[in-house]
Fold these 3 entries.
Entry 1:
Amino acid sequence: MVDNITKTLDNFILFINSNWKSFNRNLDDLKFRDDFQKKDITDNWFQFNWELYVELQVCKAGEFLVEYGDGAECSDNGRVTYVNSKPSHLVKCKGKDKSDLVLDYISNKNIKIDDKEFYKFVSFNGRFFDESAPFEYSLLLDDYGENYLVKNKDIAFFLGHV
């Protein structure tokens, strides 16, 4: 892992939290779209803004991030822009304190997160997580596709190579 990109990700969280209500209201007004189409539109919205607000800030020209969450549904590789590009970087996390142990709210156990990959931001009501504001949690994945849920305030984000 090379660059600490926490400030950039904090700005992205601020953006999606600030715009979620307006975006969701617009989505609800789409009378001729079913729930599957609305999910695709939501994935496209997240991915486009991920590329605009995060990727352009942390990647050099010709470098690209792994897609945000499920990625966009408008292209084969999950991207909205540069649809023929391959990811060169991903977002990894570390605990903000020295121990690198962070509470996983799915298992309710402290876990080591330096081997986990960031997947997307979510909210959590104590029982379930979902894509809605406030986006105060990060969903992480391990190499086996296992989910982990951690509070954003407990972690720092870093740019890593694919």
Note: The helical segments are 6-28, 35-58.
Entry 2:
Amino acid sequence: MPRKSLILLMFFALTSTAAFADSAMDVYKAFKRVEAQLQTSINAKSFNDAYVDAKTELSIYAESPEAAKTPAFVGNIKNAEIEYGAANTFIITSHGYSESDRSFISGRAESASRDLEQAKIALIREQAKIKKKK
């Protein structure tokens, strides 16, 4: 039994960096899918589904120990989530889109897109710092 525990511990130690990168990247990719939904067309159901999936990924990641190692990434992703959340609320409560409505949604999307790019840059920097410490 102790040998099995030691083997499992070694396995998790060796794979923790890879798992960390995958989970942060999963969050990023989920929000990029939300971004793609707004760029292709505004369909309330598909946008809401993508948004809820991304928000769930963020919630899971934000509670993980890895999130503490990437505070700038998490902060930028949370900013994007706020912008997409505003767009989502607007989209699901609207029954038609005027030019000003499209402008509001577009503004939220542009802001969220900038936040996503900042999150990606932050993640790259934070991962480099983690690797450097090893």
Note: The chain has four helices and no strands.
Entry 3:
Amino acid sequence: MTDNLDQLKEQWRRLSVGGQRLDDANRRITDELTRRRVSTTQQRLAKRLRKYVILGLVLPVLAPTLYYVLECPLWFAILYGLFGILMMVANAFLVNYIREADLISMPVADAVRRAVNIRLWQTRIRIMGIACGAALLASLFFFIADRNEPGLIFAGIIGLAVGLSVSIPRCLKNMRLARRLEESLSEG
């Protein structure tokens, strides 16, 4: 009877040691997966926001079209171009802010704080872009309506609908990526 008890104790001890090794391996794998998820999410967010930098470069190129083709006032074409430059600079700042941080090697509290700041700056830039863009679009529609060309008004409405249908899902995806980055760091 004591032999069976000793054998059971020995088997229990071996299982405990094996279970500890499995727990350690599981912890290492979980940490590695978290690091990879953080790194991938950080890179994806920066890559997506870099497209807005390029888009900001396009607006100053299109500004002369507003003046020469649509016959908008010169001050409006200049503001349109400056809006593009402002958005380009703001998004370039955010892309650099995201890329320059090695979130994986930072202390967790600092990395989470950085991710919160990324979301904060993303929100600020979005609000600034929406406010300035809405003012510019309202002015543009005023100039188009003043010309009393139904085809041009219809084209403007279609352009607005297409622009919103493309930009809103992209904006939501970027917000989800920033939130996922923060959550990944908070979990780790």
Note: The chain has one domain: 2-187.
